[in-house]
Write a structure and sequence with these properties.
147 residues, alpha/beta, Alpha/beta knot, 5-stranded parallel β-sheet
């Protein structure tokens, strides 16, 4: 599976960058993954477009109005995408004021990390950890259950 984790804005905190790098490394054991900082919503929406011979991405937006999953449900979502969709998957955390209606309408799916508001850098870490957890669930690794 090819996976892109995208977010708006540069990383300000070194600790956030260290955690981002750590989880991207962990995820790379299960999928081809890339983390990318983008300038704005339009750059995120461009992930859906073909760039030369590269395939477009199936775009999943993280938005407070999206569907909430358990860790197991996220694992199933990722497994279903891997099994049924040849496109790389892009999971995107948007700008501080959220995604526009147009962006939400154009997404393949909209997911929420929960009802609480999180700073964007923290939301990125939560998303990365949950994606890593999902892959360990798919592979039957004991990380999720703590065994």
């Amino acid at each position: 599976m090819k996976l892109k984790i995208a977010w708006v804005g540069k990383t300000k905190e070194p600790a956030i960058q260290a955690l981002t790098d750590e989880y991207l490394k962990r995820i790379s054991h299960y999928a081809e993954v890339e983390g990318v900082a983008l300038a704005d919503e339009s750059a995120i929406l461009n992930l859906r477009e073909k760039a030369g011979s590269r395939p477009s991405h199936a775009l999943v937006l993280l938005d407070s109005r999206g569907k909430q999953f358990t860790s197991e449900e996220l694992a199933k979502f990722l497994q279903n995408h891997q099994d049924r969709n040849p496109k790389p998957l892009a999971l995107a955390i948007g700008p501080a004021d959220g995604f526009s209606d147009n962006a939400r309408k154009s997404a393949a799916a909209i997911l929420s990390l929960g009802k609480m508001t999180l700073p964007h850098e923290l939301a990125r870490i939560v998303l990365l950890e949950q994606v890593y957890r999902a892959f360990t669930i798919i592979q039957g690794h004991p990380y999720h259950t703590g065994h």
